[in-house]
Amino acid sequence: MLNYVVRRSVQAIPLLILISMILFVIINNAPGGALAPYLQNPHITPADIHRLEVNLGLIPPKGVPGWAWTIVRYFRWLGLVLHGDLGWSTSNAEPVTRAIGERFWATFELMGTSIVVALIVGLTFGIFSAVLPYSVWDYIVTTFAFFGQSMPIFWFALMLQLGLAVHGIPLLGGYMIQLPSAGISSYDTFNLGDRLEHLVLPTIALSFLSLALYSRFTRSSMLEVLSADYIRTAAAKGLPFHTILLKHGLKNALIPVVTIVAISLPSLIAGAVVTETIFAWPGMGRLFINALQQGDMALLMGYLCMVSVLVIFCNLLADVAYAWLDPRVKYD
Known about the structure:
13 helices
C-alpha cells in the first residue's frame, strides 16, 4: 500500500504541471491578461501600459515568438512557485500565499463540517431506506434526495436566510430563534457558541446536495449487498441483524459510495464559492470571486492550482479507502 501511495503521488506531479500549464495559458490569454487589474483605471495611458508590459516581462525579446515567450514566462512562474512564491495579489495588496493562507482555514472549517454532516446524514438515510424499501420512510427520503439534487444552491441558500435568519424559528411560549444570516463571527475574539451559530446555515446549504446524493447511492448499494448470498448465510447462522447490517453489509456497500464522495468534491468546492459569497463567509471561495471580478490573475492561478492539488489528493484518499474496505483490492 505504501508503495502504491508513493507511486501515485509521483504520478500526480506531471499531472499537476500539465494542469498548471493549461491554467497559465488560459488566464494569460483572458481579456486584459496580467494587465487586467491596471486597465480598470480610467486614467491609465498607453505609456503606462507599455511600462507595465516591460516591468512585468510581457514583451518578448526581439526575434522570440510570442508562444515561445509564454513558455519562458511559465517556467519562470513555476520556478517561483517551487520556492513558495505564488506572486503578488493586486486585489489584496499582499502575497498570494498570505491571501490564501488567511482564508484557507475558514473554508476548511465550512467544507469539513459540510462533508461530515453530509456523510453522517446521507449514509443514515440511505441505510434506513435500504432496510425499509418502498415504505413511507423510503418514499420520503427519495423525494428529499430528488429535491436536493435538482435544487439550485444559490436559491436554497437565500431561502435559508429568509426563513431561518430573517423570519426565525418560532418556539413554544412565543420565543423565536434567529440564526445569523452572514459572516463567521459576531465577536473579535473566538467564541465557540457564536461560531457554531454562524456555521449552521452555510453548512446546511453546502451539504444538502451531497447529502441527497450520498443517500441515494447508499440505498442502491445497500439493497444490492443485502440480497447477496453471504448476507443470507450470516442470517441463517443466527447473527444479530445489526451485526449483519453494519459489519458485513455496510462495509461492502460503501465501496461505490467512496467513488461518489471523491467525484463530488469538485462540485462541493464550486458550491463553496457560491455559499461563501451569499453568506459573506471569509473563505477562499469568496476570495476567488473577488479576484475574478478584479482581474487578479496571480491570485486566480494560486487558487485554481491549490484546488487542483486538493482534488488529486482526495482521489488518492479514495483509492486508499478502497483497499481498506475491500481486501481483494491489491495495488501492486
